[in-house]
Design brief:
By secondary structure, this protein is α/β, with parallel strands linked by helices. It has 2 domains: 196 residues, Spore Coat Polysaccharide Biosynthesis Protein SpsA, Chain A (Alpha-Beta Complex); 219 residues, Spore Coat Polysaccharide Biosynthesis Protein SpsA, Chain A, CATH 3.90.550.10. The protein contains 11 helices and 22 strands. The strands form 5 sheets. The chain has a 7-stranded mixed beta sheet, with helices on one face. Strands 14-13-12-15-20-17-21 form a 7-stranded mixed beta sheet, sandwiched between helices. Helix 3 crosses helix 4.
Length: 423
């Protein structure tokens, strides 16, 4: 099935607000068109095309100009349709669930998707029937018998509903989430506020990532940018906390990030334990993860952790994060007893923690060695049973050979060596 993203409208209601077509406006750092095409590709859809003559749209995939624009209904482009097709609206913010619903729903005829008042997609197998009603509606409009000519008129014609009546039938699939279309600048501003409020209220499902930061400017920026890409595109509720601990390198690049992207706290150098405690004190998330700023993470670090930690209605105390060191697994993670994980794993970045097991437990700032172990024994005591879940691939890369004097690694050497003995 081919997917056609309809983005060739005149944009008179939008009136070039912000100097861009509405399909290129950004929400959480991603354009509407970029989001739609990304979600399609993530769900295995590669046969899609965008109707627009604007050269800027080509960065998102193949484009064609609209062949006819004498009325709005012509957005349902026919020139490239030779089999089953799904029309998507270019000015709609689709949620992941909405796209999955549209793609997975099977039909042998014609299927409409949307809210009670807005159509978001039309999936068509019976092309002859759909275009017969499209042409019928257009003719009525051109003759002045109806005063509007959009997707709803095709829907009414197909279902034999009066053109003066608004009614949806049982075969119309309602999408009841944040999916919404953007027609006017006011729609955009209101929608941005709604999304921000949703993020603000979603702390319950948020991971706070705490990164103690001492020097290693280049690697720190690399880590932040990886996390921000996933935050902007997948999990905007993520909280990224940088505890900058008196670096001697130039770390001014940190100040270039938006406060909405990362939280920065500057401290006099006092060690990893203090930095982590400061992070715990200001973190809002229901889940906590630690990253050392001289290590590395996979590009899909958050994308792997979120589904795991949220699985089965928040029942897990922690998520275990498989890790590499020197291009090999630190341990065979399949041998870990998930009820008592610290019998073999003693580094704080091995886990994403449910806040309920952390409570007010903090790192001992008087320890210079094995502070991870001391804290983990409080959070995951060996004499208590924990509920853990294991991610199925390595997503953390421990690189202690890169900087033996960094804030965290100089204290972790013995712990990693000890873990490796259990391989």
């Amino acid at each position: 099935m081919r997917y056609i993203i309809m983005a060739a409208g005149a944009g008179t209601r939008w009136n070039n607000y912000l100097g861009v077509p509405k399909h290129l406006i950004e929400i959480n750092g991603e354009t509407l068109l970029g989001r739609t095409t990304r979600l399609l590709k993530e769900n295995g859809i590669t046969d899609y095309i965008i109707t627009s003559p604007d050269a800027r749209y080509a960065q998102y995939g193949p484009t064609i100009p609209q062949t006819n624009l004498d009325c709005e209904i012509e957005r349902f482009e026919e020139s490239i349709v030779n089999g089953p097709v799904c029309y998507l609206y270019g000015d709609v913010y689709y949620t992941e669930d909405a796209i999955k619903t549209i793609i997975s729903t099977e039909t042998n005829n014609i299927q409409f998707f949307g809210s009670e008042w807005e159509i978001y997609a039309v999936k068509i197998v019976n092309l002859n029937l759909f275009f017969e009603h499209k042409h019928k509606v257009k003719q009525l409009y051109m003759q002045g018998k109806i005063n509007r000519c959009i997707g709803w008129e095709i829907y009414r014609s197909l279902h034999n509903i009066s053109f003066k009546e608004h009614k949806i039938t049982d075969d119309y699939i309602l999408i009841k989430d944040e999916t919404d279309d953007i027609d006017y600048p006011s729609d955009y501003e209101n929608f941005k506020k709604k999304i921000k409020n949703k993020i603000r209220n979603s702390v319950k499902n948020c991971i706070s990532v705490i990164i103690p930061c001492y020097n290693n400017a280049e690697n720190t920026k690399k880590l932040i940018d990886k996390l921000l890409y996933q935050k902007h595109n997948y999990y905007p509720e993520t909280e990224i906390i940088i505890i900058e601990n008196g670096s001697t390198e130039d770390m001014s690049f940190l100040e270039k990030y938006s406060p909405e992207d990362i939280i920065i706290k500057h401290e006099i150098i006092t060690g990893a334990s203090h930095a982590r405690n400061v992070g715990l004190d200001i973190a809002h998330g229901e889940y906590i993860a630690f990253i050392d700023n001289d290590d590395d993470i996979a590009d899909d670090y958050l994308n792997c952790i979120y589904p795991a930690i949220r699985k089965d209605n928040n029942k897990y105390d922690y998520c275990l994060i498989p890790s590499y060191s020197d291009n090999r697994l630190i341990i065979d993670y399949e041998t870990i007893d998930l009820a008592h994980p610290i019998k073999k794993l003693w580094s704080v970045w091995h886990y994403c923690y449910n806040r309920r097991i952390i409570g007010n437990k903090r790192f001992d700032e008087n320890l210079n060695v094995a502070e991870d172990i001391a804290w983990l024994r409080l959070v995951l005591p060996e004499d208590e049973v924990q509920k853990g879940i294991l991610i199925d691939k390595p997503i953390y890369f421990y690189k202690w050979e890169n900087n033996e004097n960094s804030l965290s690694h100089r204290f972790n050497r013995k712990e990693i060596t000890r873990e490796r003995k259990d391989m």
